[in-house]
Amino acid sequence: MTGRSGDVPPDEYVEAEIQNMLAEDPSVAEQGITVVRRERGLVLYGEVESPHRREEILRRVAERFPDTPVTSDIGVIRTQAPTQVEELP
Questions:
Q1: For 38, left (φ over 0), alpha (ψ -120 to 50), or beta?
Q2: Cα–Cα distance list, 32 to 20, 36, 45 (Å)
Q3: In a domain, 84, yes or no
Q4: How confident is the model at residue 74 (pLDDT cuts 50, 70, 90)?
Q5: What angle do CA 31, 34, 40 make, to 5 degrees?
Q6: Which CATH number fits the domain that encloses residue 52?
Q7: Among 10, 17, 25, 27, which residue is least crowded by beta carbons within 10 Å?
Q8: C-alpha atoms less than 13 angstroms from C-alpha of 35 in its C-beta half-sphere
Q9: How confident is the model at residue 40, as a pLDDT?
Q10: For the chain, what is the domain count?
């Protein structure tokens, strides 16, 4: 784990570590989140199926990288079961 203070932008290794954690950690397993390095921190972009899922992702990142400033731009997609049968030709 790489620690950083809030005054220094995170390096590409921290960015990659977070991306790997999001994709490979079985408790997260989220491949639809992109990590982007900005001047004073990281921004997480993507969409998840619930606000709870978004909060869990942010909690896990904050736990593992407490000294890295992270901003969330993770949206919530409302998934619903189909209301009618789709007929294919």
A1: beta
A2: 12, 13, 8
A3: no
A4: very high
A5: 145
A6: 3.30.1340.30
A7: 27
A8: 24
A9: 82
A10: 1
Residue 55's pLDDT is: 93
Please indicate, yes or no, if residue 66 is contained in any of the structural domains.
Answer: yes
Is residue 12 within 8 Å of residue 42, measured between CB atoms? no
Domain of 18? 12-76
Distance of alpha carbon 2 from alpha carbon 49, whole angstroms: 30
Residue 42 is assigned to a structural domain of this protein: yes
Report angle CA 48, 30, 25 to the nearest 5 degrees. 145
59 has a pLDDT exceeding 80: yes
Residue 88 resides in a domain:
no
15-26 burial string, b = 16+ CB within 10 Å, else e? bebbbebbeeee
